[in-house]
Amino acid sequence: MPAITGKLELEYEGEMKGADHVSRELIRAAIAKTFDEYFSGVDMRQIVQWFDLGGEIKLTESAAAKEVLELVKGIQGLMEKLSALDVSPKDNTETQVSAAEFVLEGLYAHKRIGRSEERVFTAGEKQPKKPERTYEREEPFRNRRPYN
Predict the structure, then answer these.
(1) pLDDT of residue 35
(2) Domain 42-125 architecture
(3) Model pTM?
């Protein structure tokens, strides 16, 4: 982040959002694009549903890989999706954790789940459903003469 924001600072100095926000959005877009290359057409509903049903996970940078692996194994359906990244349970712990975090970041990049600055992954904010349009019969714009 510091390397990106330093380069963007001059370009976006007068913007309301600021270089930090722009940098985060660039990273988010890059993760989403890479995620799509590996998981295009893969059903991620089971993972998203786990979060929607109240699941929450905090991934700290200081946590050991074994500790994080145990946490991500608790997310329903996540470990099965890692095969798209050529990661299997036989791979080392660090590789599995890295792949699992990539899936979570990809879902966050697509706004399917939420994430805080403290790296707490939760259910994403649901978009309010648009009310369905109801069509009512409009009154005719002119009076019609009744039949007989």
Answers:
(1) 95
(2) Orthogonal Bundle (1.10)
(3) 0.74
